[in-house]
User: Fold these one by one.
Assistant:
Number 1:
Amino acid sequence: MANPPKSQAPGIIGWIEYRLPIFSFLDNTLGSKYPTPRNLNYWWNFGSIAGICLVMQILTGLFLSMHYTPHVTMAFDSVENIMRNVNYGWLLRYAHAVGASMFFVVVYIHIFRGLYFGSYKRPRELLWWFGLIIFLLMMATAFMGYVLPWGQMSFWGATVITNLFSSIPVVGESVVHWLWGGFSVDNPTLNRFYTIHFLLPFVIVGVVVFHIWALHQHGSNNPLGIDVKTPQDTIPFHPYYTVKDCVGFGVFFIIFSWFVFFSPNSLGHPDNYIPANPMVTPAHIVPEWYYLPFYAILRAMPDIGIPFTNIVFVESKLAGVIGMFGSIIILFFLPWIDRSEVRSATFRPVYRIMFWVFVANCILLGYIGAKPPEGIYLILGRIALSLYFLHFVVLYFYSVREKTLPLPESISKAVLQQSAHH
Amino acid sequence: MSNKSEKSSSALHPETTRRDFMMLSAASLAGIGAASAMWPFIHSMNPAADVLALSSVEVDLSPIQAGQTIKVKWRGVPVFVRHRTPADIEEARKVDMKELKHPEADESRVQKGKDQWLVMIGVCTHLGCIPMSGAGDYGGADNGGWFCPCHGSAYDTSGRIRKGPAPRNLDIPKYTFLSDNRIKIG
C-alpha cells in the first residue's frame, strides 16, 4: 500500500481524489506536475498527434463495424452500403481510410524525428523498442483492414503477403494453410482478419501505455539531445505543451480534412472498387503507399549464393522476406549500432548528412516499390536496398570516430543565449 | 524420510528444500498444461472439415481445343488445363536441363501417353498470383507459356520457371484420367 492521504480536500474532486487519486495522476502525467524540456520544437508534436490518430481510428472503426459484414459474398456490398445508405457512412469510412494513411505519415515523421535527435539512445532504448513494436502492430492492423472491403487489391494483397510465410523452410506451406484456414484466401481468412483487425488496435493502446510509461521515466529527449540538469531546463507540460500540441492538432486536422472532403480516394487504389475475384490477378499489384519501401526491398533481393555458379544458399523469395523484416529488425539494434555519445544530429555534422541521405533513400525505395520490378527499377532497387543496410554498417564504425561539435552546458543556457541573439 | 538423509541433502545444497521441489514441479506442470491448452485454439484456425471436403473436381477435356488453356477452380485456386500443340511439346523437350532453375524433364510433368495434356496449379510459386496464359518469353511458336504480372516470373510450355523470382516450377496437382476425355483432380 502506498501512503494514503491523511485528509480529504473539500469538494467533489477532493472526495474522489481521496478515494482514487486520478486527478493527481493526470496532473503528473500530462499536466502541470510533469516537467518537460523547455526547448521542444514542433517535431515533438507528432507523438501526441499519433495518439489522436489512434483514438480516431478506434472510434471510426467501431462505428463502421456496426454496419460491416465479414463474409465473402457480402463484404464488398456492405462497404458500398455504408457509402450510400448509412447516415454519414461515407464520412466514417473515408475518415477511417484516410486516417490510416495520416497515422502512418505522422508515425514516420515521429520515427525520423527520433532518428535525427538520437531519441533511441540510452536511457531510452526500451521506449524506442515499444515504439517499433507499435509500428509493427500498425502494419499488421492496416494490412488486415485493407483486406476487409474485399476488392481486388484486398484479395491479392492478402494473397501475396500471406504467401510470404510460405518461404519459411519445411513448415512454410502448413503455416500458410493455417493462416488462411483453407487452401486459398477465402471466407475463413476474411473472418479472422476482421477479428484480428478489431483486436490489434487495443493491443496497440496497451503498448502505447508502456511507451508513455517508459517516456516518463526519463522524460522527453530534446532538440539539443542533452540531459535535463536543473528545474531551469524544464517547463510544466500543461499549459505550455498542451497548447503547443493543440496548434499541431489544428494544422493536422486541416490536412486530414482536405483529404477526407476533397480527395478521399487519392491515397487508395482504384482496383479495390472491383469486387475480389480469386480467378483473375490484377495486372499490377501495389500495396498501400506506406508499405512501398518495404515492398521494394522484398522484390529487390536477389538469390544469395556463390556468383557465376548454380549454388544458391538462400533463394530470392526467402531472401526478400528476410530483407524486408530485417529492415525493421535492424532498428531494434540501433541504440547499440550508433555508438556516438552525442544524441542530437545538430552536433554531429557527418551523421546529419547520413540521416538526410537515409531519408532520401527511403523515399527512393518507396518510389521503386510502386514501379514494376524490371529493368532500371530492379537495378535502382538493389542499389537503394544496399544503401539502406550500408547506413547502419557505416554508422557502427563511424559513430565512435565522428568529430562532434561542442555541446551547450545546459538547456536553459542554450535557450537564453539564443534569445539574446535575437 | 529420515532426519539424517535430510540433513545430508541440505548440507549439499543448503538452499534447496523439499518445498522448492514441490514449487518447481507444480509450476512446470502448470506451465505444460497451459501450453497444451493452446493447441485447440491454434488448431481451430486450420482448414475445417467442410473446407477439406471440397477437395476433388472432375473436368471434361473434350471441348478444349489444341492451343487452348482453361482454368478450373479447385480448393479455391485455379488449375490450368492446357491442350498442348506439337510445337509446345517440342519447345518443352528441346530445353537443356542445365538452363533450368528447377530442373524437371517435360515427360515427368505430364502423364505417359497424354503428352498433350498439361495440368498445373495456376498459382505462381513466388507469392501466389495467377500467371497469365499465353504470355511471357518462353511460350514458343504457339505462345504456350505463362507470365506472372506481379513480380515478372515467366514459365515455359511445360510450366517450368525460366525467369524471375519464383523458386519452383508450377505445381502439378494429383489427378487421374477417368477416361480419355475426363480427369479427376484431387
Number 2:
Amino acid sequence: MTDSATALDPVCGMTVDTAEASAKGLSADHQGTAYYFCGRGCFLDFTENPERYLAADYTPSM
Amino acid sequence: MPALEIVQLPIEGMTCASCVNRIERFVNRVDGVSEATVNLATERARIAFDPSQTSLAVLKGAVRDAGYEVVEQAEEGHEAEDLDRSRALEMDDLRRKWVVSLVIGLAMMALMYLPLGLERPLVAPVLLIAATVVQAWAGATFYRAGWRAARHGSANMNTLVAVGTSVAFGYSAFVTLWPSLAADLGLPAQLYYETAVIIVALVLLGRWLEARAKRQTGAAVRALMELQPPAAHVVRNGVEFDIPIEQVRVGDVLRVRPGDRVPVDGTITEGRSAIDESMLTGESLPVDKAPGDEVIGATINSSGSFLFTARRVGTDTALAQIVRLVTDAQGSKAPVQRLADRIAEVFVPIVLGVAALTFLGWLVFGPSPAFALTTAISVLIIACPCALGLATPTAIMVGTGKAAEHGVLIGGGEALEAARAITAIVLDKTGTLTRGRPEVTHLYPAAGVTETELLRLAAAAETGSEHPLARAVLAHAHARAIALPAATDFQAAAGAGVIATVDGRRVAVGTALHAGVGQELADEIAEGGATPLVVSAEGALIGAISVADTIRPESNGVVEQLRALGLEVWMLTGDRRRTAEALAIRAGIPADHVLAEVHPDGKAAAIRTLRESGATVAMVGDGINDAPALAEAALGIAIGTGSDVALAASDITLIGGDLRGIVTAIGLSRRTVGVIRQGLAWAFGYNVLLIPVAMGLLYLPFGILLNPVIAAAAMAMSSVSVVSNALRLRAFRPPADAAEILHPGLGARVRDVGYLVAIGLLAVVIGGAAVVLANPAHTDATSSPSVQPMEEMQ
C-alpha cells in the first residue's frame, strides 16, 4: 500500500489525494503551508487570491 | 436585438463545481456574451453570444485563460466534413511517410549496389543520416505501437517491425560510426540501412492502402451526409427568415417550400405535401404528409408548402445517427486481419526467441561472433512480416474498389468475410424481388371499347391525383404515347377513387363501388393478386385496369445464379401465402422456400428461425421494417439507398437497386477472401521456409547461408507476390449467368492455378540464384577495401 494522504481543497472543499495532486502540479505553498487542489480551476483561483479562501468566513462551495 | 449565436464547447479538465464557476466567470466577462452555462457532468459549456461583438476564438481563449482546454472536435452537424478532414490528414501523413521512405530506400539501394565508383567512407555517413531520419520519423509509429504492446506484455507486428529494423539500422550505424572497433570485434562491415528503410516504407504503404480502401467505401455515405441543407426558414413571431441549420433548436417552427429539402426532423403543424423520402427509406414514391405526421431531415418536399415543429436537431437527427453508425463501422477490423494479429501474437515471440537461439548457438559452436550476429539479423529480417501487413489491405482495397465499380458498397473486411460464409439468402419481396411500385399489368376494356380509349379516359381522370395507382396508370398511358384530353371538376375520394369530367362525361376511376359498376371484373382481378381499377363513364362500364407490384426483370436470373453459387434462396413477405407463392414461382423460388404472412415485426424472428436450423443467413431488404432482419442476419444487404436504419443494419449496400449486385457481392467476396488467405499463407510460408535457412541450418551440410541482404530481397519478393496476387482481383467481372458459375471457363481456371505456380517458381528461381550467386557479390559491392570483407572473417 502506498501512502494515500488526503487534504481538503480550500476552494471547493473536495477531498484530494495529496500525492496525485502534487504529481499534476496542483499544489501550492502559501506561507509555509502546502495546499492541494482538485483541478486547475481551484488551483488558479487560490493562487490569484489565497487570502479570500483562507478567510475564516469563507465556505467552500460545491 | 442582435441575433445571438449559441455554441456548445466541450471542455476538458473540470473536476468540481468551482471549476464550473470559474469558467462561467471568465466567459461571462467577455464582451458580447449574453449567457454562459457550464455543465460539469456533460463537460460542456453552452454560450450565447453576439457574433458581431465576439468570436468563437475569443470564447475558447477565455476558457483557456480560466485554465481549461477546449476539446477540438466537430461542431454539431459538421461531423461529415470533420471526419473527412481528419481521415484525409491521417492519409496524407501516411502517404508522405511511405513515399519518402520508399524513395530514400530505393536511392540507397542504387547508391550501394550500382557501380557508381563512390567510396564507402563517403556514402556511409549519408546513408546513416537518411536512415536515421526515416527511422525516427516514419518508423516512430512502430516504436510507439510496439511499446504499447510491450507494456501489456504482448508482442505484435509492430514489435517485429520495430525490432527488425532497429537491429538492421543499429548494426549499420555501429559499423559506420566505429569501423575500426567493429573490425576489432570481427563484425563484417555490411550495411543494412536500405533494408530497414524499405521495410518501414512497405509496411506503411500497406496501412495507407488500408486507409484508402476505407475511405472509398465511405464515399457514398458521405454523399448522403451532404443532403442536409445549409439553412432553414424559421418562423418566429410571425416573421419568416433564414438561419443556418446549426442554429435550429428543438421547438422552432420551420417553413418548407416546394422543392426544398426538409432541414431537420419534426412534426407537421400546418399544410400538407408529398415528400420524397427515397434517400432514406428507399421508397421511390413520395409519401403524403398531413399535420401530425413526422418529417425527416434531408428528404425532399415535392409540391406543397408546410410548417413543422423541429423535434430533433443537430446530432439527434436521423441523418446524424447514420453518420455516427457508419463512422463506428469503419473503425472495425476484418476478422481475417484479427486472425493475422492473433498469429502474430504467437509468431513474434517465437521469432525473437529463434533469433536469440541462433545467436547463442553460433556464438558457442560457430566460426565467429560475427557469424552469430549476421545469422541472427537475417532471422529477424526474413521474419519481418511486411507481406502479412500488405495481404489484407491490398486485397480489401482492390476487392471493395471493384465492387464499387459495379454499384456494390461493401462495408469493409467484416462484410467480405460474412458474404463468403453464407449458405442461405433471404430476399424480401416488396422492393427487392419486385420493384416496390405498382405498374399496370393488364387492361380489361368492356365490350366495344378499345384499350386506348380505356386508358385515355382513365389517365385523363387521374391526372390530378398523386396516388401511386394513379401514377401507374398515367405512366402507362405515357409509355403508350396516348394524348390525354383535359379533365375538369376533379374530385378525389380517399380510399375509393377519383371522378372528373372528361370529354363532357363524368368519368369515375377506382373501386367497383366507386365506379358504380364492374364488381365481377374487380373480383376476378383481385383474385389474381392485383389491384383492380374500375373505369366508368356516366355510370356505364368502360373497363378495368389491373395494377400490381411487378417483379424486377433481373430477379429470375439472380435467383438462378444464387442457387448456382450453392445458396438456398428464400422469399420473405407479409403477403398471403397463395399470392406469395405465385410470385415466388415466377421468380424461380420453390413454394417451400416462401416465408409468407410474416408481419413486419416478425421478419427478424423468421431469420432467427432459419439461423437456428443451421444456416448462415444473408438478408436482402430495403425499408425501415427490414432493418431488424438485416441486423439479425449474418450478412445484411440493403437495396437502393436504403432507409437510415436499413443502411445502418446492413453490411452491403446495392446502389441503384440492381439485384445483380448481390451476385457480384458474393462472388467478389469469395474471391477477395480467397486472395487474402493466399496472401497470408504465402507470407507465412515464406517465413517458415526461409527462417531455418536464415538460421544457418543449411550452412553445415551445404555451406548455404542467407546473408541479411538476401533476406531483405526475399522479403521484398514475398511482398511483391502478395500484392500482385491481390491486384489480380481487378480482373474480376460478375458472372453473366448461372452456367458460368457452375462451369467456369477453362481459361479462368488455368489462369488461377497458373499464376500461383508461376509466382512460386519465380520465387524459387530468384531465391536459389540469390543464395548461390549473390552472397560474395553483395559483400564485394558494399564493402570498401578499408574494412575487412565478410569472407575473410569467416
